[in-house]
Amino acid sequence: MTAVLLDSLAAIVGAANILSGDDVTSRNVDFFSDETCQGLAIVRPANTEEVAKVMALCHQHQQKVVTIAGQTGMVKGGRAAADELFVSLERMNRIVELDPQSRTLTVEAGVTMQAVQEAAEAAGFFYPVDLGARGSATIGGNIATNAGGNRVIRFGMTRDQVLGLEVVLADGTVMSNLGKLLKNNTGYDLKQLFVGSEGTLGIVTKAVLRLRPAVKQSHVAMLAVSEFASLPGILQRVDEELEGGLCAFEVMWQEFFDCIAEAYPDKTLPLPPGSAFYVLVEQLSGDDGERLQQVLMALYEDGLIEDIALAQSDRQRQAIWEIRDDVETISEQLGGVGIGYDVSLPIAEMDDYINTLKANLAEADSASRCVAFGHMGDSNLHLAIAYKDNSESDKLEIDHLVYGPLKNIQGSVSAEHGIGLTKKAYLPLCRSDAEIGLMRGIKQVFDPLNIMNPGKIF
Amino acid sequence: MTAVLLDSLAAIVGAANILSGDDVTSRNVDFFSDETCQGLAIVRPANTEEVAKVMALCHQHQQKVVTIAGQTGMVKGGRAAADELFVSLERMNRIVELDPQSRTLTVEAGVTMQAVQEAAEAAGFFYPVDLGARGSATIGGNIATNAGGNRVIRFGMTRDQVLGLEVVLADGTVMSNLGKLLKNNTGYDLKQLFVGSEGTLGIVTKAVLRLRPAVKQSHVAMLAVSEFASLPGILQRVDEELEGGLCAFEVMWQEFFDCIAEAYPDKTLPLPPGSAFYVLVEQLSGDDGERLQQVLMALYEDGLIEDIALAQSDRQRQAIWEIRDDVETISEQLGGVGIGYDVSLPIAEMDDYINTLKANLAEADSASRCVAFGHMGDSNLHLAIAYKDNSESDKLEIDHLVYGPLKNIQGSVSAEHGIGLTKKAYLPLCRSDAEIGLMRGIKQVFDPLNIMNPGKIF
Q: FRET pair for A163, CA 20 to 30 Å: which of A231, B154, B177, B260?
């Protein structure tokens, strides 16, 4: 049966594009673990037509399919069982069209985020979504997970960049709506369902992305702040003064900065350690940085900011970003823990939430460490936690301490990484039975045989 | 049966909140027609609990329900048959909470757009969606239709302002997700389905809206442009120079300006008539208007702009906007036709599309007139058309000429007004069978008895 299916698949995509054995197991499920891929084979179609034929065949055989992209996910959304088939769009990596009048870029789903950014830039435009895995993560994966990153406060998540989609449905039907329209109120906005659906509703094969005007210059500052209560006011004032130019408002709790200082005792940091909070502020603008400097000085004079380091060069700008992005050092300083906690919660609740979490961790393990940081402007925090022996059962305890309190404060167990498998048990903390029931109903409509990434999300 | 149901409804909301007879028929289905409401009664619940009880009862009785809001729609989405029941949230018009830290406003769905704008402003914030019917249109209606308006290019449509929703489903289940989170990737984003669903999937009872920093000043200019081919470049250059400050890029074809000039021969217009295109540009910013002036001067020197009128006062600013907004005069000059055509199409196709449309109209009626204008920056055009006797059968001919060509250029028959009843026949021009099939499947999941605004959209 399987052999017959694989032969038929080979007839569609060519034998060279059915990978098996070591070619499968030599790949990791994701970037952050050593777990290797276990599926039946990796099928690599060359175009939408081949994807459609592959899915029609799988549908006929009730063959379960896991679509993989850059394999940079965080929640095991791309894990396959031994009898499940991987579909990879890695050969579908063409830029289809850049339309300067509509200011859109149409791409195949296997193109990387970085290739999209570069194609936009080469034509004098800007694709704003950005994250560390830009060289591997593909647009298809970004859409499947509604990737966010560092500039959401100004430009939104991947959802906000997608104007049109071409999708192959579970039965091989090609659903194409590659319009370049900012406005289109014609029935239910189906593309919104595919964005963030983690491969459970269909395979995105092409997308029309919205481009923005080219960005001229980046102005970056790091702030030291003594009280959490000052942060929302700083965010609001900076955002107001920069009039849409604020692109990042990244907060690091003291422990974050301490970890960096501990790891690099000889390094000159932009600000001295010891403050309760550090904030990275970035403005993208063609101005001379005067406005950012002025509003920060005003906040300093008002006593809301303790200290300011304003980057005066590309090197300094980069040095500030490197601190914020150095999650590897945070992980190492905490004994190799992952940075898998990615929650969102109302800003007004953040201080209490983190303090309570730390207290709860310390109660069971006085040597525990909890490093909080993230996109405060987007209500999104990441956490790195060292607790007891960091064993699997210890991690379950952390899960409960991290996720449990979110329910009552209308937070979310996943701000940007998605649910996949690792957060599935916690979905009911932020989605009601009614919501999950509707999700199941939608899944049934799109994929009645349950062959598209089965068992993920719910 | 009906009497029993009405008694039971009265027991839920109070007899005074069941309107019937003249209290129903004295209302118009929408602002732009004389069609009066024909439903069984108007039920006016006071809170979510009452809405839930009303829907549970209607579900039990398989009673069809049409939710009405500000009744300012354009596509008969709020028309009810004689045996259908209106539910109005006009008593649910409270501002629930303004959270300055999360920069959100939580409201009941019956609150007007204007009340939301005012509540935001009073707290030093800005709610960006705006349209002429702001005093009547409610947030519930805005969400049901994904209202757009004049500032979409910068701030997006209503969809982009909605962070959380509370919805009563067809069977009376309350689905509440009133989180204040910018980022929340936890399964399918169900709220996106309700936005733009025109009352067919549930009744939105509350919403969490995203607020923006207060806006300081408006700079407005009107431009005269001789060639369509110059417009995309002007848009791109202005948008780039204003760095996110561009809020409106409204294009009026020559006939629009001619109509205004004809109607007010004694009025001093900001620019002389006779140019092929007029553009209203608005920047919202705290700067002194220097940047807008500079980029416009540069475009003038490059020969892309024929003439510029830069508003120097609030009065002048208002005068320019009044021209763009004066669709009533356009309608009158064309003999009282409606302004119901609201299409979107790629900018690159607009010139050909309008020229072909005019030629086709003129072929059948040499005295026909076609006035095009709209939010070019959003790919959205409105059309006012005088053709033959403007009879119902003439309108069908216009429909075919306006909507027909959109299919091949991946345009949309409804940029912002929705589908309702009047555009239902044309939905297949911009949505495939596969898409409409999925919409029907979703409808079946949310409303298996088909009692929520039945027969609308598809």
A: B177
What residue type is assigned to position B359 of the chain? Answer: A
A-proximal residues of B, 224-253, CB under 8 Å: 232, 236, 239-241, 243-245
ipTM: 0.96
- Sequence-distant (≥ 6) Cβ neighbours of residue B339 within 8 angstroms: B327, B330, B331, B382, B383, B384
Among residues A84, A91, A76, A188, the alpha carbon closest in space to that of A140 is found at A91
Q: How far apart are CA B377 and CA B387, in angstroms?
A: 28
The token pair at A369 is 């460490």
Structure tokens at A319: 């040095």
- A239–B213 CB contact, under 8 Å: yes
Phi, psi for residue A316 in degrees, rounded to 5? -70, -40
User: Amino acid identity, residue B103?
Assistant: R
Binary contact (B175, A432; C-beta < 8 A) = yes
Per-residue pLDDT averaged across A287-310, rounded?
97
User: pTM of this prediction?
Assistant: 0.97
The phi and psi torsions of A431 (rounded to 5 degrees) equal -130, 135
Which DSSP symbol is given to B371?
Answer: E
Residue B375: beta bridge partners?
A: B250
The answer to whether B108 contacts chain A (CB < 8 Å) is no
Q: What is the DSSP string of A12-30?
A: HH-GGGEE-THHHHTSBSS
The tens digit of pLDDT for each residue in A332-363 reads 999 988 777 999 999 999 999 999 999 999 99
Q: Is B37 exposed, middle or buried (0-12, 13-18, 19+ CB in 10 A)?
A: buried
* Pairwise CB contact (< 8 Å): A244 & B240: no
Q: For testing the chain A interface, which of B184, B227, B445 should be mutated: the one with the most A CBs within 10 Å?
A: B184
A410 vs B: CB within 8 A: yes
Q: Which residues contact B439 (CB under 8 A, 6 or more apart)?
A: A187, A188, A190, B431, B457, B458
Q: Do B438 and A412 touch (CB under 8 A)?
A: no
In this model, does residue B1 exceed pLDDT 70?
Answer: no
Query: Higher-confidence residue: B447 or B244?
Result: B447
> Is B172:B139 a contact under the CB 8 Å cutoff?
no
* Residue B272 reports pLDDT greater than 90: yes
Residue A1 confidence (pLDDT) above 70: no
* Residue A168, number of CB atoms within 10 A of its CB: 27
A414, containing H or E segment: none
CA–CA separation, B303 and B71 (whole Å) = 45
For tokens 């909070």, what's the residue?
Answer: A277
pLDDT (tens digit per residue) in A125-138: 999 999 989 999 99
A416 contacts in B (CB within 8 Å)? Answer: 183, 185
Which pLDDT score, from 0 to 100, does residue A333 have? 94
Question: Which B residues in the span 433-452 are in contact with A, Cβ-Cβ below 8 Å?
Answer: 434-436, 438-439, 441-442, 444-446
Report the C-alpha gap between A182 and A180 in whole angstroms: 7
What is the token pair recorded at A332? Answer: 């190492």
Residue A184's pLDDT is what?
95
Closest CA to B57 of B171, B201, B166: B171
State the average pLDDT over residues B111-130. Answer: 97
Q: How far is B332 from chain A (nearest CA, A)?
A: 27
Give the contacts of B3 (CB within 8 A, at least 6 positions apart).
none
Q: What angle do CA B427, B430, B433 make, to 5 degrees?
A: 75
Helical (H) or strand (E) element with A246: strand A246-253
Q: Do A213 and B236 touch (CB under 8 A)?
A: yes
> Distance between alpha carbon A206 and the CA centroid of its chain, in Å?
19
Percent of chain B with pLDDT over 90: 94
Determine the pLDDT at residue B377. 87
Nearest CA-CA partner of B294 in B225, B360, B243, B230: B243
Which position has the higher pLDDT, A149 or B262? B262
d(CA B93, CA B112): 7
